[in-house]
Design brief:
- With 206 residues, this protein is mainly beta.
- 15% of the residues lie in helices and 52% in strands.
- It is built from 2 helices and 15 strands.
- The longest helix is centred in the N-terminal third of the chain and has 16 residues.
- The radius of gyration is 19 Å and the shape is globular.
- The N terminus is likely disordered.
């Protein structure tokens, strides 16, 4: 009886949070047939009502701008592949963003640990979330902050400016959302997106 009660509590917690269980996957364990650009940042395997998937984020870091040694560029990529037994994985969707023509301090990276998988609307389709920052700056101006979510091939995004904390001092600029696709989606998506924005809006510099 105690075991059944514990199981019911665990299932209730999962239902409230909408989290889908994920398993971390390292580079060496990625299935054959998964191709990507950049260097892996985070990869997880998960299941929903339609199958088994791997979500992967990668980034190149600063690179010389092709054709112009004075400037640098950096690229970010996100992928979700569906695993299909002995056949090659199928690419479900891909994200690509970048900073180019930058000769100042560059930021182009996924927020560590921000790759998240949920089923907030409980329809059996996983929602995959990524958060990243982009900037080319020579001062203490904030980076662009983006929260991207895909449910299958349907995409939602928040785009805006984060806030910068320098030497433990929070700068006055930023913290502004410029566009929010989640307002057009289910309420649980909007609530979760706002929570992620509040969690990651502050970028810390030494």
């Amino acid at each position: 009886m105690r075991i059944f009660l514990l199981l019911a509590i665990l299932l209730a917690d999962l239902s409230v949070s909408g989290q889908i269980k994920t398993q971390a996957v390292n580079k060496a364990s990625l299935p054959k047939g998964i191709t990507y650009q950049g260097k892996p940042v985070q990869a997880v395997q998960f299941q929903d009502g339609s199958g088994t998937f791997i979500a992967l984020t990668t980034q190149t870091g600063a690179q010389p701008q092709k054709g112009d040694d004075e400037f640098k560029q950096a690229h970010l990529y996100g992928y979700v592949f569906q695993l299909k037994g002995s056949t090659s994985p199928t690419l479900l969707w891909q994200l690509h963003d970048m900073v180019t023509e930058c000769n100042l301090d560059m930021v182009a990276g996924f927020v560590p640990g921000s790759l998240t998988v949920t089923d907030l609307d409980k329809n059996g389709k996983a929602e995959v979330w990524v958060v990243y920052r982009l900037s080319c700056r020579g001062d203490v101006s904030p980076s662009e902050l983006k929260i991207i979510m895909h449910e299958g091939v349907k995409k939602y995004a928040i785009r805006g400016e984060g806030r910068l904390k320098v030497a433990n001092v929070l700068q006055p600029d930023g913290g502004v959302i410029n566009s929010n696709d989640f307002k057009k989606g289910p309420v649980p998506f909007l609530q979760y997106a706002r929570g992620m924005w509040n969690k990651y809006v502050i970028e810390t510099m030494p």
